[in-house]
Amino acid sequence: MRQPPVRRPIVRIGLTLALLTGPALFTAAPAAGSPPTAAPPGEREASVLLELGTEAAGPAWRRAAAEARRAQRSPEAVRREAAAAGAGQRSRAQGALDRLAAAVHGAAPTARELYRTRTLLTGLAVTVPADRLPALRALPGVEAVHPIVRKQRDNAHSVPLTGAPGVWAGPSGEAGADGNTGQGVRIGIVDSGIDYTHADFGGPGTEEAFKAVDGARPAPPGLFPSAKVVGGRDLVGDDYNPDPSSPAYQPEPHPDGNPIDCALNGHGTHVAGTAAGLGVTADGKPYAGPYRPGLDPAGFRVGPGAAPGAQLYAIRVFGCDGATDQLAQALDVAADPDGDGDLGDRLDVVNLSLGSRFGSPDDADAIAVDHLAELGTVVVAAAGNEGDVHGIGGSPGTAPRAIAVAASVDPHSDADGITVLAPDPLAAVVPSHWSGRYQDWATADVSGLLAVPVDQPDGCAAFTEADRQRLAGKIAVLAWSTRESERACGSGPRADHAADAGAIGALLAADDDHLAEIAGNDRIPVALLGHADGERLRTGAADGPVQVRLAAPGNTLHGVVPQDQPQRTDTLTDFTSRGIGVPGVVKPDLAAPGETIWSAKAGSGTGGQREDGTSMATPLVAGLAALVRAAHPDRTVEQVKAALMNTAGDTWLGDGGTGPVYGPERTGAGRVRVDGAVRTPAVAYAAGEGAVEGAVGVSFGPVPVGGAYRDVREVEVRNLSGTAASYRTGYAAATELPGAAFVVTPERIDVPAGGTARVRVTLTVPGRLGRTPDPTIATFQGGRARSYRGELSGRLLLTPESDPALPGLRVPVFAAPRPASDLTAAAPTRLTRSGALAALVGTPAPAEQPGLLSAFALGGEGARWPDCPPASGAAVGPGAGIVPEDSTEAQAPDAVCVERPGDRAANLRAVGAASDAPAVPDGQGTLYLGAQVWAPAATPVGVFAVRASLDTDGDGVTDAVVKADRQRGSDVLVARTLDARTGAELDVQPLNARWGDTDTALLDSDVLVLPVRLSALPGVKPGHSTVRYGLWTGAATAGKPDPAEAFSAIGLRGTRPTLTIDVLHPAVDVRTGPGGPAAVAAALPPGTVLDIHRADGDPSRVLLLHHFNRDGRRGQILALP
After folding, report:
1. Whose CA is closest to 971, among 799, 777, 1111, 826?
2. Would you say residue 273 lies in a domain?
């Protein structure tokens, strides 16, 4: 590969961002109180996948198969020619990788090879010192460098809800006659392995059998491979954990051929049981059928999975604990399990209960998933467990061809139990969820009286002496919110504070009946109670002594206490992530039950365990996809996905199917119903201009509207049967937006046998556009108004007319129109030496607010990062945006390029500062820091965010750091000011100086304002009011940000801020008019005349941010006369 066309090293910023941000990754919904996992700041080692330009085996195999089919070869000839092409190309890829490996070790002698991929792409995964990456990128043949982002692991009642038993029985209703349990379909479980000794998979079903297996050696004959778990491999080994922040850090994989799970976590076993477990009968035996509707849940220790007749293939990518960086290799194995270049043995379905938040369709992992799907494998991935936060949906579920799954609620859960012993009117076994960290529920004896603290009711701070006396020797009853944004802390701190106060246990009384998993601690037992039970015990304790038993020797109340809540069916879990709505792609795709899912427990022989998470919903859909593949083996990946989505049903905000229906950004098409997916003779999906291949839903994405607007998308309906069909079209709204509408035409379509028809979906905005929230969101989170964007969404409906007995079809439809202004300030007119006037001109936004303006003294400008040229060198590492202390240059010396245009959201374009102190009473002023970047971000606090460093006392040392942030688990977006030395919080203000109930166009934007109260800044006072500042972008991680890790910076030398503003007497003071307030987040129409004052002789220019303008036109630099 030729050398880069520039002398300075090029920082490929897409790689840099992914390596340094270490985005939080989801597994099962985390037990409340669990510490988050994050990459440590300043990590100097990088794991990357070096992609060669040499073609991989997969594309060669696919091309040869297509050419043979076009030549009308026999099926056997097609198979043979494709296999030969794939094997030959795999050999060539292996040779290229051998040469690359030698070159890598020459360029980076300490490099550790992780694995090689030869099927989806030709790649070499290595861990190297970050400063050696430029040398690796310049090696001959290297086409791209992909970051390897570490990932962590994310049924008796849920399966019947999806309609699977009806498919098992078949059209005749007689199990086994013409039924379908997924036989002949192989499901890959990319996870922590599978305990194939468990009875749910046909194993011996004893703890002894599990303990007898040495995971580092071949499995005992007859155990693996088996009729159920037909193959697999362990890519990592038991002690593998590539997370440097973990005490158990061990990054060296030790692969072997035995993919047995660990009892410590058992995530993969639980997932596999949900997808395709046989079921375990009440007497501890593998269930042998018949599989039919109406199976009695009481007859099972573990109910059958969604596709009990399917086979399982275990690809182990996790050790017994911790994270993984092996996803790309696992996908390569799924494409060619025996590694011979013949992809005819690729897996039919792959389950990925893992992912990273704030994903994008063009993430590297998402692209790899699309490659696998193109080869013919249905990939099902978790949508994430981060809650109702804008843009947080997980990758690789963001891949257009993947099926991303949200988590809904089914009518039943198997809870744990606590026993109320006295008084008699309250005596009962009460459903609860036990804390996961306490290990002595069945061995310790913990009984006592209840006590309710008065001074600290939720236990999120150390108890007062009076409360300590109340709790000592008793079981504390503490308040708990099921909404993360409303919680002051998790279950761990509450358990610690209760134990410190002398409590022997704790009950968390929730504010509704959602019983999530909780962590607690290992010192005392803690149980979570639903609202009604918690209130009853709290009230009882106020009236007199209430005695409760938590733990007891031989305790049998784990997972056996029924909790029937049919009214909650088809509502959503609190943790399931809001997805993405970008041009061409709206996610998630489907919802499935993912709360309190009971499935096989590794190491138990016959037992089960309960888990929450989209990780649990995902394998349910994977099993259902196997049923569709078994019923229609000739259908493509896209058609299987469309059938599942087209036949889904609504999910609701309220109990009993009441209240608003959730829109596509929460549940995609809706809750899955496989019986309709198997029966439908037709499928419908987005097509034509604006459609993304593999996506089913229609997404216009964010749409700036400056006046009357109209745009059209199309949906193709394909008849897969030999009989003509006709459908009546319609539309069911989920979220509405005043002034905008979808129009569906024509009213009726005829679809010939084996043919297609098109339906048009037209987005229309005749004039003025309103803004209303999605009716399912909480507009206040943690007591503050959240940010939101106006959205128009629902489902295109196709109702069968030719045969009303056929399933109706639905397709998600989404758009986010927003009012857009086209405003600028005319050249200022000078009145005096220190004063000027500038009039706003242009077109106002067609909304209640005609525009929104913020004005600053310009601090500096930053260059636009160019696209990366082919074969460019790459320097990837912390501090790409920092100017060295001894440099005479104004900007960082390294040239920077981007592989994804969206990464320019971390590329500062212009910054400035303003103060409103001259316009407000003494001491009440605010410092405003403005920033414009080179590309819009879906949210200002996503993968990366804007930060500011402030030197408030003039000693050359940063005293405070301001970061764009969010309140915990919410879309309450804030500027959080921290003490640079201690990390203590000094101030919290809303981004753009307004809370979310005022539209400041904060989402999908390339500008923002960071406000800081002057009274919160140490050292600022009359006579000492000059503040040095610098703005930079960095990873949106928790804690005190480090400017040494900046991606882009303006006004920093080293890590010291260099720009200045006198916050009490600013050199530039822009008002909304003579004597008016400071022009910050000011709603101003055209014709407004800005009153601009500046200090005598000051040469400053003015940075204007027009918040409502279109992308790239929001910033304006105004030269003063």
Report:
1. 777
2. yes
Look at residues 765, 789, 819 and tell me which one is the last residue of a structural domain: 819
**What does the pLDDT average to over 625-652?**
98
Is the residue at 381 inside a domain?
yes
Residue range of the domain that includes 121:
40-149
Using alpha carbons only, how large is the chain's radius of gyration in Å? 30
pLDDT digits (tens, 9 = 90+) for 1041-1055: 999 889 999 999 999
Q: Sign of torsion, CA 1112 787 648 350?
A: positive
Read off the pTM. 0.91
Given the residues 491, 615, 787, 915, the one annotated as active site: 615
Q: Strand pairing partners for 960?
A: 950, 979
Residues 385 and 458 in one domain: no
390 is known as an active-site residue: no
CA distance 1003 to 1008: 10
Peptide bond into 171 cis (omega under 30): no
Alpha-carbon span 456 to 438, nearest angstrom: 23
**pLDDT digit string, tens, across residues 724-748:** 999 999 999 999 999 999 999 999 9
Domain C-terminal end among 819, 850, 881 = 819
Give a yes or no: residue 652 inside a domain: no
Is 192 catalytic? The answer is no
Which one of 191, 261, 365, 496 is the catalytic residue? 191
Q: Is 953 a catalytic residue?
A: no
The two beta strands, 829-832 and 652-654, are: unpaired
- Round to whole Å and give the CA distance between 538 and 515: 17
Q: How far apart are CA 920 and CA 928, in angstroms?
A: 14
Residues 876 and 952 in one domain: yes
Three-state secondary-structure class, residue 397: coil
Do residues 946 and 975 share a domain? yes
Tokens of 983: 């990390």
Cis bond before residue 225 (omega within 30° of 0)? yes
Segment 755-814, tens digit of pLDDT = 999 999 999 999 999 999 999 999 999 899 999 999 999 999 999 999 999 999 999 999
132 and 188 assigned to the same domain: no
711 in the same domain as 852: no
Domain assignment present for 1010 = yes
Active-site pick, 267, 371, 390, 1107: 267
Total structural domains in the chain?
5
pLDDT band at 153 (very low <50, low <70, confident <90, very high): low
Same domain, 74 and 100: yes
Tokens, residue 860: 């500096």
- The DSSP code sequence of 5-64 is SSSSPEEEHHHHHHHHH---EESSPPPBTPPPP-PPTT--EEEEEEEESSPPHHHHHHHH
Here the CATH number for the domain that contains residue 436 is: 3.50.30.30
